[in-house]
Amino acid sequence: MSQSASTAPDALGQALLAYQRGHLSATLAVHSSVADEEVLPASYFFRSLWEMPEMERTALEECRGRILDLGAGAGCHALELQQRGFVVKAVDISPGAVQVMQERGLREVACHDIFDAALTHGEKFDTLLMLMNGIGLTGTLDGLERFLQHAKSLLAPGGQILATSSDISYLYEDEEGALVFDLNGPYYGEVEYTMQYATETGASFPWIFADPALLQDCAEAAGYEVEFLEEDDQQQYLVRLTLR
User: Fold this and answer.
1) Taking each helix axis from N to C terminus, what angle separates 141-150 and 212-221, rounded to the nearest 10 degrees?
2) What CATH number did the domain enclosing 64 receive?
3) Which one, of 44, 40, 41, lies nearest residue 31 by Cα?
4) Which of 40, 41, 70, 182 has the most neighbouring CB atoms within 10 Å?
5) How many structural domains are present in the chain?
6) Of all residues in the chain, what percent carry a pLDDT higher than 90?
7) Is the pTM of this model over 0.85?
């Protein structure tokens, strides 16, 4: 993330703005280092409560206190929480996403990287929310370890992180079901992504899919209690981290 949020190409933001302006068929092309190109409809970021996966609805039920929604996108989770009476700050690195959230009525929105020192101006939160494989925002294994330390400065006493991630080891299975990856290479869950909307191509960015055992090891080493709240048959899980 060497480019600033204001100058970097913003394919995600442009797609969200297009949808917000009535272009309901707006889609993103998502290129990754581990899979074929995928098409992601912008509408997915605008889903209502009952369009959300059960795991996300569970996460919203588990929220408490003052909430910081990291990687908030078009604000679907933050808006739902705001409607429930919570005070929510929604943050995204995409200027277009931030503009969309402001237009949709979120009261507190900011454009920041999750590691930005100015993220909260010293304010503390009871819940850090990281949905849609939100652990991926940390980028790499080193980034995950760094974020778990950084989050301590964001959390109020007794605060929690509610986050989702996935184990993508199934992408490396051979025909017999054995896992085939380089144990001496980077962690298999580290992926590079690029997003494209119309003629706008964003810079590539790292994203981590942390398997549950790895996440537990990293979080416990950083001083967190780890509670897995939900898992599904797609190898996705919802975890709660609280400081010991």
Assistant:
1) 40
2) 3.40.50.150
3) 40
4) 70
5) 1
6) 83
7) yes
